Amino acid sequence: MTTELAAKRIEDSFFDEKGETEFVWLGMAGAGINARGTVLLIDPMLVVLEKDGEEVSETGHRFRIELPIEAKDVPRVDGVLYTHADMDHFGRPTAEVLGKLGPTFVGPPPVVKGLRELGVDQKRIVVAKDFDKVRIGEVEVFVTPALHDYPSSGHVRGDCCGYVVTSADGRIWHPGDTRLIDELLDVKDVDVMFFDVADVVAHLGPRGSARLADSCGAKVMVAYHYGTYDLPPGSWGSCDPEDAKPHANGMEAEFWMPNPGEVMRLGARGPERTVG
User: Fold this and answer.
1) Can you tell me the mean pLDDT for 189-199?
2) What is the DSSP code (8-state) at residue 190?
3) Considering the domain boundaries, does residue 271 fall inside one?
4) Domain total for the chain?
5) Over the stretch 40-81, which tens digit does the pLDDT of each residue have?
6) 110 sits in which H/E element
7) Within a domain: residue 263?
8) Residue 154's pLDDT is what?
9) Quick one: which of 276, 259, 273 has its CA closest to 6?
10) For residue 215, which phi and psi values (nearest 5 degrees)?
């Protein structure tokens, strides 16, 4: 992989009240959003474990980066959204730590089952169903469908999803892990779309992500699902986003490859990077 990442520490100030919407990529498939004070985390994997004397992720893989923040250092969170229960999206150790902060958890049925096993109060769990809308603080969360039926997954329709987060400043879409299915082409008026660079089965990959970014009207595409764990090149979490760039050529949307933890903004002037 030619793209090397250098995580930037997410400071406590990211979680403060804001006059606009700020967002970060957390590494792999994770995202953090502060929409004028309402803090959401999507697919956070923020716990470091020890295995055979070395630090590893919740998936058991060695890290290629430092985490931009660990779950124990998150000062507050209003909502934790999970797209599906795969090991690189739903980290039980992270959910246990964040659960102590009292957030609303949102996820499809296999995630809900896992949260119940962790002892999360049912009153704090919302089952994510296709096309439902969930209100958390100052934002509306719209559940988009997903089909992530790779051969060993056992996933069926309804087991996976994505989320469009709408704040006073605009709309951010995290489609999760999914094939390109027709219903996704109906999503419109998106400002920022997380762009899955994993060119493997049952993912959007660069082609599908570019088509979706074009159809939804995204102004910015943020690369994700790469560079975080020590995996073979070209595998599910180790495709090079540089290979995705040609698919974004000629599009009006900008293609961003931020470092994990780099703060980006969505305000009156549209999406902006705070660091080059």
Assistant:
1) 98
2) -
3) no
4) 1
5) 999 999 999 998 889 999 999 999 999 999 999 999 999 999
6) helix 109-117
7) no
8) 94
9) 259
10) -70, -30
- Among 79, 100, 99, 65, smallest CA distance to 31 is for 79
Strands (E), 12-169: 21-27, 30-35, 38-42, 49-51, 54-56, 79-81, 104-107, 125-127, 133-136, 139-145, 161-167
CA distance 95 to 88: 13
The answer to the question of residue 136 being in a domain is yes
Is 5 a domain residue?
no
Range of the domain at 227: 15-257
The residues that bridge with 165 in the sheet, in sequence order, are 141, 172
pLDDT for res 275:
60
pLDDT for 268 beyond 90? no
Residue whose token pair is 């986003």: 241
User: Do you know the residue count of the chain?
Assistant: 276
In tens, the pLDDT along 167-178 reads 999 999 999 999
Ranges assigned E (strand) in the chain: 21-27, 30-35, 38-42, 49-51, 54-56, 79-81, 104-107, 125-127, 133-136, 139-145, 161-167, 170-174, 192-196, 220-224, 254-256, 264-267, 270-273
